[in-house]
Amino acid sequence: MNRTRRSPIDVVGITLGVLAILIVIGSIVYIAQGRMFTEGWSFPSVHQRWQFPIDTGGGPVREENDQQVPGTFSEVEVRTIAGTIEVVGGSASGVAVHSVKTAPFKNAAAGLHVDIHPEGSRLVVEEKHDPGFMMRAGAVSFRVTLPRGVTRLEAHSVRGNVTVQDIEPGIDQVLSSISGSVSTTAAHNLEASTTSGHVQFVFSGANLGARSISGSVDGDIKALDKGGSANLSTISGSVSVSAFAGLDAAITLRTLSGSVTCDFPVTISQQKRNRLQGKIGSGSAHLEASSTSGSITISKD
User: 46 in a domain, yes or no?
Assistant: First the structure.
């Protein structure tokens, strides 16, 4: 008699088939006895199976606080992540800090702090978070009032607007945001930049840099010192600047997709629809404006 020898795969398949039959029979008997319903047993829901025991400690939180920082400071730096920054002038003495802390739940608010600390003649005001992923949920917005005597200001936000207004003239400024707009109404030397937002400025000094990746650059140049430079650029947006009547600068204005307009009389060295190079006056300073997709306009105050 010839016997067919079964392979290991056949044996496993038969075994699994038998087990499946037994499970089905057992389930039928179990249901027929009514035990599945009389004992109140049921499968857990998807929400129950994937629910994690996270204690958020309550609902949304908003806290406002005012702090007066005594002392004489020549430099002030303000930093936040998702909040806005507003800097104004008018404090009689010291630096006044108004902070607004917001968080989606109480435990995140408890791990979010306003850190104010002097470093000699420099004062730093910034948002701080305790370690932990959930502790990054909140944000702090600042309104900082500067006294007289401050000569340098830095203000940086990752996802909020940065605004400087009504401050004493003659303050050098470094302002930046990644996904917010940047504006100042009175800057001496200025570096202003944003990735996704507009830049607006009023400038009177030696060195000006205003840059945006996706947004317009608009401003007013009240003075540009001899030997100074102004560099204005955007990739997706326009550049529109008004300047004082006595502007004396070598200019280079260029765009890939747009037009170039200058209201000043220019001694032209090169001119095309989208490029203008030459001198206004004797060219004692340098002004350069560029855009990839947008127009460039230099007008007279």
Answer: no
Contact of 235 with 219, CB cutoff 8 Å: no
211, burial (CB in 10 Å: exposed 0-12, middle 13-18, buried 19+): buried
Over residues 1-28, the mean pLDDT reads 50
Q: What is the pLDDT of residue 36?
A: 34
Domain co-membership, 21 together with 132: no
Distance CA 9, CA 4 (A): 14
Q: Which of 126, 153, 180 is the last residue of a domain?
A: 153
pTM score, whole prediction: 0.80
Ordered DSSP codes for 150-205: --EEEEEESSS-EEEESPPSS-EEEEEESSS-EEEEEESSEEEEEEES-EEEEEEE
Structural domain includes residue 45 = no
Please list, in sequence order, all residues whose beta carbon lies within 8 angstroms of the beta carbon of residue 89, skipping any fewer than 6 positions away. Answer: 145, 146, 166, 167, 168
Least confident of 50-54, 65-69, 181-185, 257-261: 50-54
